[in-house]
Design brief:
Elements (H helix, E strand, L loop, with lengths): L1 E4 L5 E4 L1 E2 L10 H12 L11 H21 L6 E4 L2 H10 L2 H7 L3 E5 L4 H11 L4 E5 L9 H6 L5 E5 L13 H7 L6 E5 L18 E5 L10 E5 L29 H16 L1 H19 L5 E3 L10 E5 L5 H7 L4 E2 L15 H5 L4 H6 E5 L9 H11 L2
Helix pairs in contact: 1-8, 2-8, 3-5
């Protein structure tokens, strides 16, 4: 069991946290910086007439540089947001006016995107845009060739997530980037799950827009970023979704949360420095989990050969319902059966449904996700508990 401290301040043994795909704990080194900027160096980065404001601006500037460096981008291409959801909305909805002006009202995406992309696409579709959604195969992967074949002269945007938040399947964003013409549509990638873990592919210069989340990379909640790369010296033609202040190049008004921004920057730097060690630790956890579950003959989603995140394992045990498993195992592990953003009202996963899986597999799928900080997991005990449920 892990030691967990909650609001009461008491520390006690509780279930091992295996829902890191939903959120990660803030790294203590990052938390110390955030606290200091909240209680001691608390200036507004927009106040440039005194040292408090100047220091705050210096922290924001450093964070831009830290995040940009990890992606081979320029600091002024980093637009801070409240998280990846807002970044996705800005990337998709922020192109609406450009699409209307240019007569390009077609968008290519996939049926396995996060709701932060799918719902903005539905909004545009209701306003005259045409959206083509590429379906995945049974393992959860979309074909780069199918995505590229769907691109037309009037295609405004191609939007494909990097790593799926439910299955961990890594999508072929490098192949898509290579296949897009230099003067072709903008390419947007939701990288909430992969940033700090699978960063190399995100450095491809043909990826125009990248959505990032602070709390998925051991930074604070409430902060994220949209990387908006120049292409041939031109910025993506984004329009603001909110108004009032002109911050973030006029695309995201409001006082910057300097402590959160600085914390995100530091978390990004640490993730890149420690990426290989963290990956090794996560792969060891995955191997132990697969070994323990093997006698149950589970259906495992994702394919290590084609690429899967080292910290997510999505599987279904034949004959078991995921809701029953979560209740039965709640004293051992804290797990989920899909995206935290849609878990308040259970409905069949749109990702697993798009994969064409049988309903019993969909209903029985669990998402186990961890981090390099995860303590020893009682995999054998969990597997035994699942085996008992089948009796």
């Amino acid at each position: 069991m892990s030691q967990t401290k909650f609001v009461s301040g008491e520390t006690y043994s509780g279930p091992v946290y295996l829902d890191a795909a939903a959120t990660t704990p803030t790294d203590p080194r990052v938390a110390a910086l955030v606290l200091r900027l909240m209680t001691e160096e608390y200036g507004n980065a927009g106040s440039r007439t005194h040292v408090y404001g100047a220091d705050a601006l210096a922290h924001v500037t450093k964070a831009r540089e830290q995040i940009a460096k990890t992606l081979g981008a320029k600091p002024d291409e980093v637009i801070f947001t409240s998280g990846a959801t807002e970044a996705d909305n800005l990337a998709v909805l922020g192109l609406q006016q450009a699409g209307l002006d240019q007569g390009r009202r077609h968008i290519v995406s996939t049926a396995i995107e996060h709701k932060a992309v799918l719902e903005p696409l539905e909004y545009l579709e209701a306003r005259g845009f045409e959206v083509t959604l590429i379906s995945p195969d049974a393992a959860g992967y979309v074909s780069a060739d199918e995505v590229l074949a769907a691109v037309r002269p009037d295609t405004l945007l191609v939007s494909v997530m990097h790593g799926n938040n439910e299955t961990g399947a890594l999508q072929p964003i490098s192949a898509i980037a290579e296949g897009l013409a230099g003067d072709g549509p903008l390419f947007h990638v939701d990288a909430a799950q992969t940033y700090g873990r699978e960063t190399e592919a995100l450095r491809h210069p043909r990826i125009d827009l990248i959505a990032l989340s602070g709390h998925k990379v051991f930074g604070p909640k409430g902060v994220g970023a949209l990387i908006a790369r120049r292409r041939d010296g031109r910025r993506p033609p984004l329009s603001a979704l909110m108004y009032g202040g002109g911050q973030e190049r006029g695309l995201r008004p409001g006082t910057l949360p300097t402590p959160l921004v600085a914390g995100f920057g530091y978390a990004a730097e640490l993730a890149e420095k420690e990426r290989l060690a963290r990956r090794t630790a996560c792969l060891a956890v995955r191997d132990a989990a697969l070994l323990a579950f093997m006698p149950l003959e589970p259906v495992v989603h994702g394919d290590p050969v084609r690429g899967v995140l080292p910290n997510i394992l999505s599987l279904a045990v034949p004959g078991l319902d995921s809701e029953a498993v979560m209740v039965a195992a709640k004293d051992l592990v804290a797990i989920s059966n899909g995206s935290a953003c849609t878990s308040a009202h259970y409905q069949p996963s749109h990702v697993l449904t798009a994969m064409g899986l049988d309903r019993d597999v969909i209903d029985g799928t669990l998402r186990l996700s961890w981090s390099h900080q995860t303590p020893a997991v009682p995999w054998e005990a969990l597997a035994s508990r699942l085996d008992d449920l089948r009796l």
